[in-house]
Fold these 4 entries.
Entry 1:
Amino acid sequence: MSELRQNIITRDWVIIATERARRPDQFALPIKNLKPLPPHQIDCPFCVGNEEDGTFEAFRLSDGNGWKVRAILNKFPALSPTQARVRISDGIHRTMSGMGYHEVIVEHPRHDLTTALLDVEDIANILLVYRQRYSQIRQDSRIETIIIFKNHGESAGTSLEHPHSQIAATPVVPYQFRTRIDEAIRYFDDTGECLFCQTLQDELTAKERIIVESEYFVAFIPYAALSPFHTWIFPRRHSSSFDDITDEEIGDLASTMKTVLAKLYHGLNNPDYNYTIRSVPTGELGTKYFHWYIAIVPRVSRQAGFELGSGMYINTALPEESASFLRSVEIPFD
């Protein structure tokens, strides 16, 4: 029989459709005979040799052989740091200037790689640049929220093949952030405990939804996952802001992300996915009630009319079975 589960962090009710559930391996995409990508593409704006003038570059991580990761201004930004932060109210109509930051993180010089196939050191370099840009952007007092995210694959919203992710910083706190913070505060007021820490402890006790554990991080599929293989990576140490991560934790997180993404890559045949780093708004650092984390959402199912009309989700994969399947996926040694 189907059942409803509530995601205690998002407050979403999720229908776990057991009667419509597919086996985890049935979510694997058909293997396509695609032409392999070249290591360098002459018309790719992110490839070595095609770099824009230095005024477009916000940060570069380099060694003696050239750059490893670059943070560049988005050529078609949704927001711009050169605008003043201006708010206008006219009756019920509210407007703000499009002030903010919108940057692209070019993750590797090679055109033909994806995060799941990068070395752990390469993923650590990406995380180092995330932290560096996060810390710098947070110094701008006009910014309220910083979002780090990656779109992998066409159905996840990407249009360029070269491995890249993005950072967006907004002058407001998005409603989704605010509601989750409100729920976390309510839980902390009621119990004196961090909701995220408690969730992590419950998952460690249950064990059945954990994908991989490391010294500093735990990757698991939530009890009420909103979609098939929806995965969270939580730091064991309570910390509300991503830029509080240490160098040692970055190395460990890189290994954890590599493992999870490689299991998805090999177990589900390189599905499209999004990931985002959820962190506390910039004005609420050092809180006891919020705990930063990473959400990875494989695009192996589609939302339809029910989700649109109700705001509820239907998950046709049992979280426990999905986690068990991913634990069993062997990553080829390379």
Entry 2:
Amino acid sequence: MNIFCKTLAVFIVLIGMVSCGGAKKAQEEALAQARKDSIARAQQNAILPIQKKYGTILSVSPKEIKPVTLYKFIDNWMDTPYKMGGETKDGIDCSFFSQYLFHDVFGHLIERTAQKQYDAPDTDKFIGQEFLKLGDLLFFNERGSEHMPITHVGVYLGNDRFVHSTARKETNSGKNGVQISVLSKRHWQKMFVAAGRKPGITKALSNQ
């Protein structure tokens, strides 16, 4: 075999070795990525304790408790006592609670009082409770009349439940303040005036 043939043979062997090495490396990288993707899917599908907790409270599957940021916010404020004009853990009123929730969870700044939240031009008001969606505001007053001032506001969560800070004491605990209530209860139906949907909330929810 002349020098040219020997050089060509060595070159072919080297190319083969490089090709095999490259293929092996690519295979290892693909397997590593597959493992990462599998772990990410498992974490995404994992049910968190807070989802189990509020799934029970709302009587829905834990998987329906989304976005988790909303329920972490609620859990952080749950059982905080009601206080007219209050804005802290020592006491909070209904409209500051809804304003704070919208700001921290949805990234939207809404009005400070229940009446102003109701009157705001961008509040899309409606009566039909069958059209309620997560994040809709619920407006109330003593007689459920649109001709009387709005005195209370809450945020709809789904499955006939809403979260709010109320002076009304909860039946089981005997406490007032931040709690989750059942909208179809006679007391709230009597006081219900309208629901209001703020723009951009559906998009904000889809990004979480």
Entry 3:
Amino acid sequence: METAPHSRTDTQERGNWIRLRTFIWLRWAAIFGQISALLVAQVYFRLHLEVGLFYLVVGLSVIANLVAMFVFPENKRLSERENLLMVLFDLLQLSALLYLTGGLNNPFALLVIGPVTVSAAALSTRSTALLGATVICLVTFMAAFHMPLRTAEGQVLGISDVFVFGNWAAIVIAVVFLSVYNRWIASEVHSMSDALQATQMALAREQKLSDLSGVVAAAAHELGTPLATIKLVSAELAEELESSPELLEDVHLITQQADRCRDILRSMGRAGNEDRFMQQAPVTAVVAEAADPHTNRGKEIHFSASPHSDSNLPQPVILRRPEIVHGLRNLLQNAVDFAHSTVWVETAWTDDKINIRIQDDGPGYPVHLLRRIGDPFMRHRRGPPDRTARPAYEGMGLGLFIAKTLLERTGAELTFANGADDLENRSTEERRCGAVVVVSWPISKLDAGTGKSGIPLGPNQPLTV
């Protein structure tokens, strides 16, 4: 599958995000609710309960909370295993209370779903499966074995076996459904969050590089005068020291190093500066800048540019925005990665639209994933041929997601297809059967002169000496 590689976030570490303090406060709330329910059952409903055993079970939670408060620091974050043990303890404690108060005859039996829901949202799939299986075993046990609820007169309170089975079935179904549902949604949210964070990091990196190139260009401009002065003075010294070969050699060395400094600054400042004029460029120049890191990777890249139809429209001058450069660079990297030998980059424009079409002669996108291209962390099990051709490539879709997100922020629309799906008629010699991506902008979004976000050059600034 054609995607850019990335380093995948280990979802097993998500448990480290949960603070111990959060569990402590939630447990205090649960303890308060359990004691309140016991007092209401005793005072208002006059139920006969095993008060000693009840307070023993609640006391275990109190002791566990006090130990957690005084032994561990307040800012401690729990590991995956510690989170699992905390939730499992709360589940067993709640099940013990339900055993003492009627089992599934107790309407509070539905609360056993809570720990599994928390696990599905915060812990790993393995931990969630373990807790779900534990809940099903516990409710199955409590359906048959429990201490009955009795009134002060000794009457046993309970529901018919049909309703007990109904409660059991409802809890089991809820555990399975809510676990899968919450886990699915949480995975989607986490994947999108990771992908958006990676997008922000990519954009920030591109912006920093752009800013850095401006600083370097300004430094090259400012240092040009003192370097020229050094060369001038060294040339005059060389004329005066022709009779002293030892000193003349040192003067020539100074001249050479000054030239070297000039060349270094010129190469570093080639990317641009803070001048508003440098923040815009012809569309082909922006495409060439995006493709520059991939032009020497052993694949041939063909560039072409022309207006649509036979019009003589001049080439549009667009904004050199970091989102555009980085987004196009990711698409070109993807094409170069999977091309057999050639990548074609075609730029075309009309009065109101700019299109950039990137195609390679590689295997193309998997047909069954075409509708999902641009989603983050797409998992695709590679077949033996692909695994042989690219044994170390582990694309997860993040590169295309970043490109799509950044380009869509600039107003672009992206279309993904394969060469066989392309309706353009081409000769046999120029047949292109690989992946195709077309990026299209309304020209008003990018035009540096007349667009909505255009950059006016402003008045000429006086030179300062």
Entry 4:
Amino acid sequence: MARRLTPLELMQKLVSFPTVSRDSNLPLVDWVEEYLTSHGITCHRHYREDDFQAALFAHVGPEEDGGVVLSGHTDVVPVDGQPWASDPFTVVERDGKYFGRGTCDMKGFDALALWALVEAQFSDIKRPLQIALSYDEEVGCTGAPPMIEAMQGPLPKASAVIVGEPSTMQAVTGHKGGIGVQTHVIGFEVHSSLAHTGVSAVMEAAKLIDWANQVNEEEMAREPEPLAAMFVPPWTNAHVGTVEGGTANNITAKDCHFAMGFRVVPGQDKYAWRDRYLAKVKEIEAEMQVVHPDAQIKTTFPYDVPGLVPEENGEAEALVRQITGDNATHVVSYGTEAGQFQEAGYSAVVCGPGSIEQAHQPDEFISKAQFEAGHQFMRDLVALLKKG
């Protein structure tokens, strides 16, 4: 029988796969399936439409509903241009920390979840345990919904999901949702000396970007609703992270591309925010077409992530609080796949080792203390599952 790897050995192996979202995660999935199968655990896959990425999920314990899902993602953000002190895809221990891309977000948790699944396989658990490892979380949580749908049928329906994003092992019961609008402004090129006869895609895009500034100022000045007041910041914000466009300094720009994103507090309709933005797009487009009829603005929607709404008497929350002893209220402004599980009928909570402050950073790390806290959590979880 294959040797059971320690959580650290599992994390070292997972980090060694450079599963940046633009690259395939299949080598990692192959290894995880081989490892779990070697311990008698049946695995299931769901492939992305292009077969370039795959999710993996598995079940141990009684073949019945009501189990617990440990949910993680396999992809990591790029390391391009970041000043790392060591190889990002090799776990290096320094100063009480484990450095490596994904140690915090979130291959540290994935390793702990794999350890717990194998441990549960060899324990007489009375309540099932499942694992769900998704793809494309870092590009808008687009891989989880088809994975969750694929889980229905092959696996008994679990009732509680623990999404292991870094929360310093606190029980996070709410987070903001998000929706993105990829925006392509198409202008009309003329020499810049005759700019009034052309349409600059860059300058028209600037109007939409400045609209985001105006909206943010309005939201900051508004009295937050009680649920929104739990968050930092306690409002929905609009943001543009990158802009690309233009040909030369003396030509009105033909094209400009940017992504408008909204982080929406629970209780607000993220589609209302989308529609509000699209109304502004139509207004700017009409002004452009007065100058030249070929000018236009095209929009697509690369991601749509539901928020996690605090549950009344939530099963997942109660389970995590029972293990950790954490009775405080915690919400976060980043998004996770927890809201997607919640929309699919699961009770969901976010709880994982490490701090979000280290996620996506050069020299990303998880502290040894946090990793051990996560390990103890998994020991206690398996012990609870043995009691039923």
